[in-house]
Model the fold of this input.
Amino acid sequence: MYVKDVIKIFENKYPKSLAYNWDNIGLIIGDQMSKVEKILVTLEATQAVIDEAVENKVDLIITHHPFIFKGLKKINTSITKGNDIYKLIKNNISVYSAHTNFDIAYDGLNDEIVKRLDLKDVLVLDTTYDQKLYKIAVYTPVSHQDCIRKAMADMGCGNIGKYSDCSFTFNGVGRFKPLNDSKPYVGVQNEIEIVEEVKIESICKESNLKQAINNIIKAHPYEEVAYDIYELKNTGKKYGLGRIGKLKNTMKFEELSENVKKYLNIKSLRATGNLKEDVNKVAIVSGSGSEFIIKAHSMGADVLITGDVKYHDAQNALELGIKLIDAGHFGSENIFSDIVLQYLQKEFDSIEILKSKSNIDPFITI
Ligand SMILES: [Zn+2]
Done:
């Protein structure tokens, strides 16, 4: 297995296209063609984590926070970051980062908190992208209809809710005249050919459209493939930062706070609002989400679970009447390693995947 194989599987679920454009994600250090036998997963690639990777002969580190975020002017061993990069390259360790794409994607950080708190009727809190949908119609000889349908389905065409491979087929007659220099699959040059054909229609999401057309052309017997693409008014999935949903049972704010500690495996958190009051509608923004206090309140949230809350944000939340749980930036995102570990273990039998032991919260509670 190579770095590129791991990236491909990872980005199937957490596409780079979902990230904000200010973000710095993807393969930050290393070579796509390096072999991977061992992966280390961590929120942050600190010096201690890099030493841990070297010690354990790790080939690839996967981080949530971008390993390089701001521009670097020098890479040498007298600068902390330079030393880290030098050490990684010397030890042939690649670093891959998945940041806002991992926050936004389904089954990413925010959805994991939703799952752990068992929320229902869950919506995206702040939509950043509405998936566009297209209809592809392709004309093919009857003999090739199955392989064209497969070529489309292999690229996710025809996925509708809980169903896959959805398509519609019409029978018909195709007519064409191969011109000079053509090499027709059926028929001869400069004579009208009549062929029993089918028209296959299937739905396709924007991100797969190009590849789906490539697949169809590869599987099709004709030199020139006739196909139509229609943009649809149907709306696809909504993507965005944060989630909002309801607790299965209304509970006291105190109980929810205790649950957050338990499910995020953290020793302490900060909260604003009356602990004895009931809460039901919960908004979540992992990491640093104070800027979504007003949005969460406008969508009817009783409480926003996030991290990195500043004093004035807490005051504003109190005034607005929305409760806050500040689980810490580290505390609300450290589950990144659990999610990635679980996903990659399912996908790769032959790769050993470790969760970093040296990536710790820089804050201590006294
Ligand atoms: Zn973060």
